[in-house]
Amino acid sequence: MKKTSLTLLALGVMASGGAAQASDKSLVIGTNNWAENIAVANMWKILLEEDHAYDVELSDVGKSVLYSGLANGDFDLSLEIWLPTTDAPFLEPHRDSIDVHDVWYEGTGLGLVVPSYAEIDSIPELAAQADRYQYQGRSAILGIDPGSAIASLTEKAIEAYELPMNQINSSGPAMMAALDSAYRSGEPLVVTLWSPHWAFAEYDLKYLEDPQGVYGDNEDIYWMARPDLDADDPWLTSLLNAWKMDDDSLGSLMARIEEVGDPAEGARGWIHDNRDLIDSWYVAAAD
């Protein structure tokens, strides 16, 4: 992977007005398979390539590989780390080798989710009604890949609440397909889910109350990078530090991608419709 050494224009350059000039602007962005991560990674790839002549590679890897890759310099940056709880175990072994930068989304959610028509409101209630919440013929919680932080927390929740259930790990799309099928049929199903996620715009869902706090309190999403990225590319660091999204902006980006069915095409359409927001990041980066 080539490192960047950039000749920068003023920080006030706008997305529609030209790119910083340099002969070598290659970036590798480490990604994972969460819906919001796919959305913002494709958004930034398009912005940096089409507006600023970067060469951006998106590398989809597991969480452990993502953090070790950043620490080793195999990746330049990654756009999502949940703190102070969810991703702390992944960061801890590399705390001195990864730079955690600014928050771009405040107030996440994480936990067990059911359709709002489900007649339970808490995880302890789930323990008493576990036989009603089945997947593929057995009492189960349907989750995402086993290397994810939410999968690990769900195993802790199963133990803490003595749930007579197993976690079935799947891909994010497979989990959402199962949720869609159950929802349309009015059937009970419990899944692991997080906010921000486009599902909350498409379905009427609710988090199960977690009185023991296994899933932690609401968190914030930061971006992170190899330690020398700031020195190599201060323009990019300033821009990403100025980047902010909320439920409306991020939800609309994810919903556009889900509707179109292609991350790049969906992100490109969203960018076209949200230039004022994007330009505000450039203005903030210049301050």
TrEMBL record:
Transmembrane segments: none annotated. Residues 25-271 form the ABC-type glycine betaine transport system substrate-binding domain. It is found in: Cell membrane. One of its GO terms (cellular component) is ATP-binding cassette (ABC) transporter complex. Residues 1-22 form the signal peptide. InterPro entries: ABC_Gly_betaine_transp_sub-bd. One of its GO terms (biological process) is glycine betaine transport. It comes from the Bacteria. One of its GO terms (molecular function) is amine transmembrane transporter activity. Its main location: membrane. Pfam families: OpuAC. The keyword Cell membrane applies. Keywords: Cell membrane, Membrane, Signal, Transport. This is Glycine betaine ABC transporter substrate-binding protein.
